[in-house]
């Protein structure tokens, strides 16, 4: 990333910290001929996730991402597909941009119904099975331990991201309870892609692009006609959560900035994000996201410097950054992961240092 701007600290964006309202429902939208968008409800602050259906005009149907997969969400997608005359059994391919729960939930059900191959970037499939599969206990315990070492102690029920904050905090919405284990597609159904590989789906050719940051092995696809499938790499009006976890790559923020530059000047005409409305001006949005991350790092550095010789912990930095917007345990987890990503990015560049004091990591500003 470029050098930190000295005075341009903004507190824009939040880790899914919009007002908590009941999810709204929208019918499928035909963005252009052969391209349908389904806005599915989520039981937490982000409120909705996009699933796309691409009809190549010659009978080939591709589903992009698969939602969280709760009953109401599944019913919404099935009803929407029925409205446009498409059954899950008719799918020819399923693409998962990344292995976060709100993008994988219906992948197994729709794969089993159709027999369609599931495409992911190589190594993201490992995360799919290790973090969300039957043997995910070790990964979840590592995250809980890391958060505790940085000042965020969670009860056992709170520590599991497979259970939403809405359920934990007494929401009347019974769907707040997520599945104990995500129904992941069979390993043999998954085909992995490499960075730069050409994928042919029906009559269309796509370039696979590795875009680490929001997820270490996040996949974007650029179709030959300029349609850009961005997943959660580029979002409009909100910023993707860039978090550091025990199993993450060393510097997700650096990865993210380099990935933004990697896609900024692609020849695109329309960008399909994982949440909210399509983006027309990719260059402008990339520049905004890069500026936001620089400003957020500057804000984190300012908070650490204000602690003077006493130092501070990541939990206190997160609380100061996001304040009253941390309404649920989901919000707190996202905020902690994002704060750790910024702190470690600053530490690797020499702006802060870290010491272990008893059971906590304490951060100090350096003289740089």
CATH class of the domain at 29-135 and 178-292: Alpha Beta
Summed over residues and divided by their number, the pLDDT gives a mean of 88
Percentage of residues in strands: 15-25%
Q: Please mark out the parts with pLDDT under 50 across 5 or more consecutive residues, or reply none.
A: 1-24, 164-176
By CATH, the architecture of the domain at 29-135 and 178-292 is named 4-Layer Sandwich
**How many angstroms separate the termini?**
16 Å
Structural category: alpha/beta
Task: List strands and helices in order, with pairings.
Layout lengths: L28 E4 L2 E7 L6 E8 L5 E4 L6 H13 L9 E3 L5 H4 L2 H8 L3 E4 L2 H9 L4 H13 L6 H4 L5 H4 L21 E4 L4 E4 L2 E7 L8 E5 L3 E5 L20 H13 L5 E4 L8 H25 L7 H9 L6 H20 L3 E6 L2 E6 L3
Parallel strand pairs: 4-5, 5-6, 6-7, 11-12
Antiparallel strand pairs: 1-2, 2-3, 3-4, 8-9, 9-10, 10-11, 13-14
Question: How would you describe what is shown here?
Answer:
The protein is built from eleven helices and 14 strands. The longest helix is centred in the C-terminal third of the chain and has 25 residues, at 282-306. The radius of gyration is 20 Å and the shape is globular. The strands form three sheets. A seven-stranded mixed β-sheet has the order 1-2-3-4-5-6-7, with helices on one face. The two termini are 16 Å apart. The chain has a domain at 29-135 and 178-292: Ribonuclease Z/Hydroxyacylglutathione hydrolase-like (Metallo-beta-lactamase, Chain A, 4-Layer Sandwich), CATH 3.60.15. With 368 residues, the protein is of the alpha/beta class.
